[in-house]
Amino acid sequence: MRLSRLALVPAVAAASALALAGCSSSDEEAAPASSIAVDDDAAALVPEDVRDAGVVTVGTEAQYPPYEFVDPSDGETITGLDIDLLEAATAKLGLDYELQNVAFDTLLPSLDSERYDLVVAGITDSVERQANYDFVDYFSADQAIIVPAGNPEGISEMGDLCGLTVAVLVDTTQQALLEDANADACAGDEIDILTQQTDTEALTQVQGGRAAATLTQEAVGVYNAAQIQGGEAFSVANDGPISGEPLGFVFAKGDDELRDAFQAALQSLVEDGTYDEILSSWDVSLGALDEIVVNGAQ
């Protein structure tokens, strides 16, 4: 079955100063979805209405490399770690998928309104979010503080952000981490949190000197620091872990059958080695999970 990779809403082009140098940080290729056999046990879990339609609609925000981003070679195709995992998982389920590329802060409200069957956008599974959504966790992500090359403020840990302006993607776990720091370690010398609609915009604030740093997921930060302007524009400042958190495909509460089908499909990818191949192709194997679980955040 040919797999659909259709972006129904065009992506916002990244500023030319932040153009990415390539699609992957590795020359190793992930297994193509066309070579992945349907897992009959996992496919049997797909709800009847979805099985009859043969396609799931997926919300994403394609400005978050290496998870999902627009391939700079054609300015159109959405690629990334999450997309490779989504493509492989839907192949296991015998389904096609369609992507809708929208602003990050509209993704979960649109899932609430049933615009999407699921959301795949590098979203952190948290206990707070589990009150409203279910997560099929596929990756363990730490955080990174991204600063201008040379690290002029000498930042090495979260406490060094006190009193500084930090750009961050709005409505994210990273924003919550900064707010927690303001209530604790930075109380009395608070971080000026500059929220942005995209990770690209947050990096632009740093590059333009309007923010001293941005806080983002480690895989994103490492990728951007290596790719943008040949690795000369930014660097990763923190020299130790900050907060490792699971990422998950997101489902509406009550959509248990589809959730369980994707859990089974991703677990099947773990067991046949495809999962490891995909993570290796994006140089993010340190975030690999041995078991795909639902709502794993504690």
Brief synopsis:
The chain has 298 residues and is α/β, with parallel strands linked by helices.
| Strand runs, count | 14
- The proportion of residues in beta strands is 15-25%
| Number of discrete domains | 2
Determine the CATH superfamily of the largest domain. Answer: Periplasmic binding protein-like II
Approximate shape = globular
| Most strands sheet | 6 strands, mixed
Unreliable stretches covering 5 or more consecutive residues: 1-28
- Please compute the radius of gyration using only Cα atoms: 19 Å
Helical amount among residues, as a percent range? Answer: 25-40%
CATH class of the largest domain: Alpha Beta
User: Tally the helices: what do you get?
Assistant: 10
Q: Can you list the strand order of the major beta sheet?
A: 1-6-2-7-14-8
Mean pLDDT: 89
Structural class: alpha/beta
Q: Topology as H/E string?
A: EHHEEEEHEHEHEEEHEHEHEEHH
Record the SSE blueprint:
Layout: E1 6-7, H1 40-43, H2 48-53, E2 55-60, E3 63-64, E4 68-70, E5 78-79, H3 81-93, E6 96-101, H4 107-112, E7 118-124, H5 127-130, E8 133-141, E9 143-148, E10 165-169, H6 173-183, E11 192-196, H7 199-207, E12 213-217, H8 218-227, E13 234-236, E14 245-252, H9 256-272, H10 274-281
Parallel strand pairs: 1-6, 2-6, 2-7, 10-11, 10-12
Antiparallel strand pairs: 3-4, 4-5, 7-14, 8-14, 9-12, 9-13
Helix pairs in contact: 3-9, 3-10
